[in-house]
Amino acid sequence: MDYQSGFGNYFSSEALPGALPLGQNNPQTAPAGLYAEQLSGAAFTAPISENQRSWLYRILPSAVQSGFRRLDSGLWRSGPFVERPAPPDPLRWDPFPVPDADKATDFLDGMMTLCGAGDAATRNGMAVHLYAANRSMTDRVFYNSDGDLLIVPQDGALELITEFGKVGVAPCEIAVVQRGIKFQVRLLGKAARGYVCENYGEHFALPYRGPVGANGLANTRDFRTPVAWFEESRRRVELVTKFDGNLWAADLDHSPFDVVAWHGNYAPYVYDLRTFNTMNSVSFDHPDPSIFTVLTSPSARPGTANVDFVIFPPRWMVAEHTFRPPYFHRNVMSEYMGLIHGVYDAKPGGGFEPGGGSLHNCMIPHGPEAEAFDMASRAELKPTYQGDTLAFMFETGMILRPTRLALETPRLQKDYRACWRGLATHFSGHGK
Ligand code: FE2
Predict the structure, then answer these.
(1) What is the pLDDT of residues 44-68, one digit of tens each?
(2) How far is the CA of 224 from the centre of ligand 1 (A)?
(3) Catalytic site residue from 129, 254, 263, 286
(4) Are 11 and 4 in contact (CB under 8 A)?
(5) Is the dihedral of CA 245, 167, 227, 161 positive or negative?
(6) 329 CA distance to ligand 1 middle (Å)
(7) Helix/strand/coil (H, E, C) string of 160-189?
(8) Where in the chain is the domain with CATH 2.60.120.10?
């Protein structure tokens, strides 16, 4: 088996037998002449149920590096998001293209920010980015000081080389690389495109299932974590980090993928969205989309997420006496939606394309377009399987402020509201 399974579990992995010290974390001399280094993803004093840290046993400690120099941040933006006021309009974007082949663009070069909320420095909020790349990262390695990255490939499979080992992630899967973890993104095809949620807040966790019970939705056993892998190389590597909203680079004279063994519960993971055990109504009405929550980053306000990652996967629809598509609504939460493949049932008329996205901020009314409303109002309510669909949502309790790029790009649709203009008055109560 390539990968360990588990989530919220404790892992230990060694690429060299005997490299993990037994019975203690920090012996006077670590096995095989390695250095011991702790990577803390939570405060030392965080409650044990939320405490995340790993011990890495590596050829050289991370402290062996040059000073940092500022890099141009390209189109990557961080909170606080103050470039433009957030308009109280629904917004929708066409997909952004993959860069031309003659313009070498790796995962970092191809990152652009659409919107965000909160502030990386105060560890609150999130940002929505798109990535598009036609080159692998080869001589540079990245770690994010500002938050965890939830990577949602839409087109093109990736291999993530991390301090903890290698793990693949393809469309219909997601990867989470937490704050501080060094990694590279390699392309397994000619190009790749997708979405990223940068989570400044609490780490993602499985939602409390409540009355759903001990099984269902995303299950612990379906998360994959890499196993230890290392290279001993004295090559020159550029180490890039995003720190307090800015990109910085330092030089290494060796590969940072020199962790020979590790143990702990703070490690990157991949989840196949096709293993999501989907719940839905088997009687009437349309459950709130929170029934499709894969991962949640809680805020200090109980039940109000800093970020929820929600999917709208293939599923049977059997509810009777019911308008089946998503209902019209206004939501205190802000919703960014993307589409991995297929058609989203509230927007069958085009305009919400794979790789594109929409933003319905706090209290902005939205719902099915006119065509979807008319079809669903007349549809025969026999069981139907909606197969070719995989949409997702990043939902937050904060207002997501679009960046200047997001508001000025020609990919922003000029008249997204037109999809509701055809909704006719059907009121039949005149004179009664
Ligand atoms: Fe919504």
Answers:
(1) 999 988 899 999 999 999 999 999 9
(2) 30
(3) 286
(4) yes
(5) negative
(6) 6
(7) EEECCEEEEECCCEEEEECCCCCEEEEECC
(8) 3-21+28-273, 276-413
Pick the CATH number of 276-413 from 2.60.120.10, 3.90.1150.10, 3.30.230.10, 2.40.50.140: 2.60.120.10
Compute, in angstroms, the gap from residue 263 CA to the centroid of ligand 1. 40
Tokens of residue 202, six digits: 């609490």
Q: Where are the beta strands (DSSP E) in 200-258?
A: 223-225, 237-243, 246-252
Q: Could you give the C-alpha distances from 150 to 275, 294, 308, in angstroms and in order? A: 17, 12, 11
Does the pTM of the predicted model rise above 0.85? yes
DSSP classification of residue 203: P
Q: What are the angstrom distances between the C-alpha of 112 and each of 59, 127, 196?
A: 35, 10, 10
- Per-residue b/e over 211-221, b at no fewer than 16 CB within 10 Å? eeeeeebbeee
- Helices then strands, counting H and E runs in the chain, come out as 3, 28
Q: Is 286 known to be catalytic?
A: yes
Q: Strand pairing of 173-177 and 269-272?
A: antiparallel
Token code pair at residue 283 = 């009687």
How big is the chain by its Cα radius of gyration, in Å? 23
Q: Which residues contact residue 19 at a Cβ distance below 8 angstroms, ignoring those fewer than 6 apart?
A: 31, 32, 34, 57, 228, 260, 261
CA distance 400 to 86: 7
Residue 335 CA to ligand 1 centre (angstroms) = 6
CATH class of 3-21+28-273: mainly beta
The model's pLDDT over 109-142, given as tens digits with 9 standing for 90+, comes to: 999 999 999 999 999 999 999 999 999 999 999 9
207 CA → ligand 1 middle, Å: 19
Residue percentage of the chain with pLDDT more than 90:
93
